[in-house]
Amino acid sequence: MRSVSAALAALALTAAAPARAQTAPPALDDPEANVVEALVVAARLPGPAWWKITDGDTTLYVLGVMQALPRGQGWDTGVLDRRLDGAFAVILPPEGKAGLRDVPAALALRKRLRSDVPLDAAVGDLAPKLARARATLRKPADAYDGWNPLGAGISMAGDYRKTVRLEPDEPERTIQRLARRHRVKVRPAATYKVMPLIKTAVRGHSREAGLLCLEGVLDEVNAGPEAAREAARAWARGDVRGAIAGPRNFQRCLLALPGMADLERQGTSDEVEALSAAMRTPGHAVAVYGVRSLVARGGVLDQMRARGFVVTAPE
Q1: Are the CB atoms for 217 and 153 separated by under 8 Å?
Q2: Would the pLDDT of 10 be above 80?
Q3: H or E segment to which residue 166 belongs
């Protein structure tokens, strides 16, 4: 999900049919809406929470991570350092791939995010939220004009993340650096081509989905940055409940778009398959997946337990 959201944001920042007044939003398909309460606990070891998956001769240490961290957010890497020692692999979430050949297609999609209708007129009942969000971001009244609701939402999300100073490369960048120090190979659970996903999401999105996406971003902006920062602090001290209590409005935005909920399910399935394959190698490895995807009902740990592996909550 992070790779696709970053690609969508990049598309908007390099840049459907005009949206009309707001109507009833579609029901949101959210694969991670519910969690397994037994997995939502507080870690006793220093730093973020870990889970353990075993089957006799193999142990996988699974670290739950945030999708991004505020700049300067420290965390205790001592447990990670110890578990990287002698590990046969580090398994990361699926990653998206895009290249220079995708640039023309990205530019062609620009028109799908533009609109001649003034944004305030296009968003209907969301206009007061929009005005409040622009004020929060210190943007002028005509900011985001020229975009349709989806384009405005993606662009505003990028501006908001700058104000919170979120670093989308963390904590994975630190994890990869430590893996290199221990000479442990790092591999993603799967690799996806990003541009087909973006085409499906942008070309096929409805007026209602664009408005739902924008509303999710507006709610996150208007809530202020402290909720995201507190979730990151909770994650750093191993408080799983506090970490997953952070805002998910931008994710709600993505899930409103065609194919995104299915992509999230596919990502979870690929993560489970990557872990199951790793269980065939004796020894121990480290996996690094999104903390909510781990504890979700039907999520990674839930599925691994259903396959007969022993899943232990944070120590």
Answers
A1: yes
A2: no
A3: strand 166-167
